[in-house]
Amino acid sequence: MEKSLHSVCRWTFHAGKGGFVPSDSIPSWGSAELDTVGMIRLVHERIQPQLPDSVQLGIELHYDNEVSEDTADEVSAAMSESGLYLAMITPGAHGHFAYGGIASLDPEERKTAEAFGRRTLDLAYGPLKKAWHPEPDKAPCFVIWNGSFGYDLASVGVWQMYQNLKESVAALCKDDAKMGGELFIGIEPKPNEGHPSLLLPTVASSIALWRNLEAEHGVSLDKKGVNKEFGHSEMIGLDPVYDTVEEIDNDMLVHMHLNSQGLNDGIILGGPGKYDIDHGVRINGMNIAIAGLVQEAGFMRWKGHDMQARPYDNAEQAIDRVVRSILSWEACEQAARDLDRDLLMRHLAARETAKAEDLIREAVVAASEAFRKTYA
Questions:
Q1: pTM above the 0.90 mark?
Q2: 349 within some domain
């Protein structure tokens, strides 16, 4: 049986978020105490043993604060020694560029941000290549996250920012092609944070960008698509289920970030209009529906857990949350496989939506029981 691929994010393991909550909740995870190599070993020693053998773990990294030219060889070796793979890498441009990054109207910032992205490519194809999964269809995803290309002023300049963005992403894709075109490249949409407004706020706008890049710049759409994050859709009040339909319909589901901001759960708070809370996977009807959709689409790539410990957690609780998130998604997938799809479709065709609701509720109960057994 082919393994289910889950990836764990380096940025989950930190001492505390700071700001309005403590920055030292987990002192042993401070930057001086837990570097990226230490985090990889922690995942191997503390998380992997708590998961079934059917799960393969990978690691997700930001360049250059979590991996850099100075640390890449050591990080790659640690992944190989631990039996983990590089699942995703992304330029941490938001940590350097406050005025739009590759979309910036400041020519110098834009030039510097473009070079930053190319260095990320160099690292992925260079010293980190040893940590790639051996199967080409499970190669890492290079994620373009839009936290840096945002704005806080309504002006006609937004048009030029979008043109800059297209040109810069097209150039990055052509650089990738010259290096072999083995990476998957995904855009991660987000509506806001760290700017009041961001370019590419939705899955649909990300798909439209790729279509424009193909038509205007000759970019091949092979291995291009969307890194769908459930929570980012929830933040803006959109439907992650329909987002998934759009991604599948356009053959643009290349990576997934599984988390929740609290929508459709009835237990945790969050949802539309809230900030990026980053709870782990929840067992609910929407996630079972998404699991069913990606199963039918044959998606067998990496599923990343972009999540945060709660500000009051200790290290044990934070590790436990990652384990729970992975097992919760596996439980949703099991419930989606076991759901009588033909009966569900018959109920829907006959307008028997209450009976359809019964089936889905039973699937949620089944997923909860599957989680309980596996977690125990």
A1: yes
A2: no
